[in-house]
């Protein structure tokens, strides 16, 4: 099952399957029993755009909040001239799980809503005819799903999603779907790891192919000039006077991989690769042996109407805003983003902390009310977590690293967001996950996880696992907000002093800090939720960040206001955005712009 991003080449073809599909809900879960795989009942179906989340199209609440099985159907014509080729159906994601049928036959199942999978359909394909594609999706949350949550069932049987996380549980075919045509002998995987030698780069590469035919590699620069070649399924490629990929100054070589059948090209695949090194040394994050300071955001894939549906126009706007404000990085909170976003980060020279969808591993965090009344079991001490959740987590992590391992922009893996870390049962779980990331990544990138406020030096049992410590801290918001802010600052400093005393000798990042702010609310003196308060709160954070040399970056929560489940803590979503959901600046955006444009890339390491 190849994770290579679908591309056309001399030997490869793609059929775009996006557009209007048939769609219906299946609240009784009857479709799998009643052979809906042979075609959905026209009386029950409506049209649904792909890619998109289904939720925000609807005007009735039952549909928007729908939880359970739901179905998509389309058909794809497969020309007979492709007989003898491998035909795959590639879903860039199916949220949160899917069973795929082609011409009535089950061809794939997939768990996890944010990573791609490809199903080979050669055994069931009909040449020169339309082929029926039917997909059963399901968006229920549980202790074993990534992200984690629960599903409530009302007395009439209606289900409702109860996320243990703070973003709306959007679902559907949220990213592109394509038919991918590759040769019978195909290139399956390709990986690179770079090192530097004077002004040269040395790239160790590895190719996996479905045959033992000869492999050739050709490397082109941005002027399409051939700069290096190699042969064999593994080896090294030296580029002399290499033009490195640098932060906000990207350069991408094209690596062309050829599978040769004597003089004939059996398969061809090209990938754009930035050459850089990444390393953590003492309290520094080094890119190409130079220290960097991260400025940027925790983000979401989230916009009006599309929900979490892939929207290249919004992606473009976000990059333009990030450049305008002087950012150089973001975290893919709280799930792997569409590959096109990672590609754009490569092209624009942004640093990405790539996060797996292991969020909600702290059930009481988002259920304050329920937590105060009921007894809580520590998340990691549940047996099902140590078995099923862990298996899903490992699978998702393996898929993430397989998908994103060659990207220059990806400088770290974030293996969890705000898990419980205070119970002993967390420790062996962390160990397995952190070990797996190290084992799978050819570039051995630093690993991190975002630490919630109660993961303090005294209470946290897991801070020795990460290579970079990432703190989500809300002193002056969740802790001592408003007029208590001076005291919040003292408490913040006390915690930072404790980290300093521990002497971990590792870089720290702030991966979250922020204050909910309603755009347009102005108040003098400030009150919480006003634009004035957001600014005062953030200036206080900066004072603390600036006084600790081991703090090597700041990613504010959040880039933009985003949709969440409704509740007493949220006014039509989380309003901690520096930009509104429509991607316009709040007043504080200009404060960031001034600060970030003036912080040198090697801030605190000069
Ligand atoms: C995760 C992120 O997805 N961190 C949350 C963000 C938020 O704005 C959320 O959107 O709420 C912060 C968690 C803070 C927990 C503080 C605990 C204090 C208990 C009163």
UniProtKB/TrEMBL annotation:
EC number: 3.2.1.31
Domain Glycoside hydrolase family 2 immunoglobulin-like beta-sandwich residues, every copy: 188-276
Any one GO MF annotation of this record: carbohydrate binding
Glycosyl hydrolases family 2 sugar binding domain segment(s): 16-183
Domain annotation Glycoside hydrolase family 2 catalytic: ranges: 278-599
Keywords: Glycosidase, Hydrolase
Alphabetized InterPro entries for the sequence: Beta-gal/glucu_dom_sf (IPR036156), Galactose-bd-like_sf (IPR008979), GH (IPR017853), Glyco_hydro_2 (IPR006101), Glyco_hydro_2_cat (IPR006103), Glyco_hydro_2_CS (IPR023230), Glyco_hydro_2_N (IPR006104), Ig-like_fold (IPR013783)
Gene Ontology BP terms: carbohydrate metabolic process; glucuronoside catabolic process
Family, per entry: Belongs to the glycosyl hydrolase 2 family.
PANTHER family cross-referenced by the UniProt entry: BETA-GLUCURONIDASE
Protein name: Beta-glucuronidase
Protein source organism: Robinsoniella peoriensis
């Amino acid at each position: 099952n190849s994770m290579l991003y679908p591309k056309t080449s001399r030997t490869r073809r793609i059929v775009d399957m996006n557009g209007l599909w048939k769609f219906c809900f299946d609240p009784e879960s009857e479709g799998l029993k009643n052979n809906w795989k042979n075609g959905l009942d026209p009386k029950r179906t409506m049209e649904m755009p792909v890619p998109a989340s289904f939720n925000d199209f609807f005007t009735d609440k039952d549909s928007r909040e729908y939880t359970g099985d739901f179905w998509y159907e389309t058909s794809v014509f497969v020309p007979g001239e492709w007989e003898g080729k491998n035909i795959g159906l590639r879903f860039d994601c199916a949220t949160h799980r899917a069973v795929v049928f082609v011409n009535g036959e089950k061809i794939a199942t997939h768990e996890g809503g944010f990573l791609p999978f490809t199903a080979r359909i050669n055994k069931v394909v009909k040449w020169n005819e339309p082929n029926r594609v039917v997909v059963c999706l399901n968006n229920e949350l549980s202790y074993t799903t990534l992200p984690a949550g629960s599903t409530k069932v009302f007395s009439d049987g209606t289900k409702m999603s109860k996320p243990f996380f703070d973003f709306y549980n959007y679902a559907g075919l949220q990213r592109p779907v394509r038919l991918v045509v590759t040769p019978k002998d195909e290139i399956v995987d390709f990986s690179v790891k770079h090192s530097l030698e004077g002004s040269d780069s040395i790239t160790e590469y590895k190719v996996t192919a479905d045959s033992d035919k000869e492999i050739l590699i050709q490397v082109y620069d941005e002027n399409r000039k051939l700069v290096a070649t190699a042969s064999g399924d593994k080896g090294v490629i030296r580029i002399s006077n290499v033009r490195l990929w640098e932060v906000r100054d990207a350069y991408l070589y094209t690596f062309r991989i050829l599978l040769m059948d004597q003089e004939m090209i059996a398969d061809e695949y090209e990938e754009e690769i930035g050459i850089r090194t990444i390393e953590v040394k003492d309290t520094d994050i080094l890119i190409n042996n130079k220290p960097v300071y991260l400025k940027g955001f925790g983000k979401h894939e989230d916009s009006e109407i599309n929900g979490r549906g892939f929207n290249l126009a919004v992606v473009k706007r976000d990059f333009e805003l990030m450049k305008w404000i002087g950012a150089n990085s973001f975290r893919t909170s709280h799930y792997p983003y569409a590959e096109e976003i990672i590609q754009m980060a490569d092209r624009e020279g942004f640093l990405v902390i790539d996060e797996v969808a292991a969020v909600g591993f702290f059930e009481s965090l988002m259920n304050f009310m329920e937590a105060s009344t009921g007894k809580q079991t520590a998340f990691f001490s549940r047996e099902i977590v140590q078995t099923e959740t862990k298996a899903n987590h490992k699978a998702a992590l393996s898929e993430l690293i397989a998908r994103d391992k060659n990207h220059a922009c990806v400088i770290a893996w974030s293996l969890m967001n705000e898990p419980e870390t205070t119970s002993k049962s967390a420790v062996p779980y962390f160990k397995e996950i952190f070990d797996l990331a190290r084992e799978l990544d050819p570039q051995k990138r630093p690993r991190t996880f975002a630490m919630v406020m109660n993961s303090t030096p005294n209470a946290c049992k897991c801070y020795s696992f990460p290579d970079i410590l990432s703190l989500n801290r809300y002193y002056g918001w969740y802790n001592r907000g408003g007029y208590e802010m001076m005291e919040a600052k003292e408490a913040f400093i006390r915690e930072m002093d404790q980290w300093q005393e521990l002497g971990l000798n590792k870089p720290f990042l702030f991966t979250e800090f922020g204050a909910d702010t309603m755009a347009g609310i102005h108040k003098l003196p400030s009150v919480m939720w006003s634009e004035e308060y957001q600014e005062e709160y953030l200036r206080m954070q900066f004072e603390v960040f600036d006084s600790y040399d081991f703090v090597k970056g700041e990613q504010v929560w959040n880039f933009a206001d985003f949709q969440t489940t409704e509740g007493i803590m949220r006014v039509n979503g989380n309003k901690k955005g520096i930009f509104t959901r429509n991607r316009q600046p709040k007043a504080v955006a200009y404060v960031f712009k001034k600060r970030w444009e003036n912080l040198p890339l090697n801030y605190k390491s000069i």
